[in-house]
Fold this protein.
Amino acid sequence: MTSDDERDLKILLERLKQEHRDLDAAIEALTAVSGSDILQVQRLKKRKLQLKDRISQVEDEIFPDIIA
């Protein structure tokens, strides 16, 4: 992997982590309001899980497990 590729992956990783934090805050805000849209909360939680999986994939690309 070139240094440009690694830099791009690190930028992507930070963007994904920020989106994950934003979703967490949105979910928390929606659940704090009574009468909130349960379906919307479920969709946000599903998106958050997808982001978590993508974050793990990107981290594995940047920091591969090397078994010696």
About this structure: Residues 3-62 form one domain.
